[in-house]
Amino acid sequence: MYIVFEGIDGAGKSSQIQLLKEWLEENGLEVELLVEPTDSKVGKLIRELLTYDNATTEDMQKTLGLLFAADRMLIMDKLNDENKIIISDRSFISSLAYQEPKDWINEINKYAKKPDLVLLLDLDVATSVKRCDGEDSFENEEFLNKVKENYLDVIKEFNYEIIDANNGINKVSSDIKKAVASYVGICSSQIP
Ligand SMILES: Nc1ncnc2c1ncn2[C@@H]1O[C@H](COP(=O)(O)OP(=O)(O)O)[C@@H](O)[C@H]1O
Ligand SMILES: Cc1cn([C@H]2C[C@H](O)[C@@H](COP(=O)(O)OP(=O)(O)O)O2)c(=O)[nH]c1=O
């Protein structure tokens, strides 16, 4: 099963993925974690470009779109293991939310595997900017407002759950577990 966490910067994806992994493993399930951008040479180049002031320009966004698409192709083989639950921090859905135009992003990602479940951590943009260190040029209210709008549009094409990420960490984790339970055969009555 391929579960993907999506959301704007600082939504709580990394924190929640760790809590979900622990819970799934306590329930006897094998879990593997992935993250995009990856730690490949392509991923490292992406992270460097994200710190450049021109990262949000149309030309650079097209370059980033191609680099993100290439970077995720490097891990596509890991997504076919049906004996594990693969949880990824981001996917090509991030490209649909952050980059554009949408039809081109879909085309260059047409070989990317579609997630079985997308968990969209929906956070207020002002809170996101407060939580982030401002290193990436994307971490500004104007850009992230557009990203948040894009997420709520593109997500409808997938099997998804929207999680209110403005709550405390334990409440968010409980909501995520309740959303995931039926997909992985765990009884949700056990979830506090
Ligand atoms: N529910 C929450 N309430 C308050 N702070 C949170 C919450 N979830 C995460 N944080 C904090 O916000 C920051 C970003 O969290 P992180 O899990 O790294 O988000 P992401 O992976 O989406 O960027 C971290 O400092 C983390 O401790
Ligand atoms: C995977 C992906 C990430 N991104 C952006 C989202 C983040 O701003 C940045 C990833 O940096 P990261 O530090 O991982 O941010 P976060 O903790 O919020 O995930 O790259 C895209 O623009 N397109 C993509 O396809």
TrEMBL record:
Domain Thymidylate kinase-like residues, every copy: 5-176
GO molecular function terms listed in the Swiss-Prot or TrEMBL record: ATP binding; dTMP kinase activity
Catalysed reactions listed for this entry: dTMP + ATP = dTDP + ADP
Name of the protein this chain belongs to: Probable thymidylate kinase
Name of the coding gene: tmk
Binding site for ATP: G7, I8, D9, G10, A11, G12, K13, S14
Keywords, in A-Z order: ATP-binding, Kinase, Nucleotide biosynthesis, Nucleotide-binding, Transferase
Example GO biological process: dUDP biosynthetic process
Lineage of source species: Archaea, Methanobacteriati, Methanobacteriota, Methanomada group, Methanobacteria
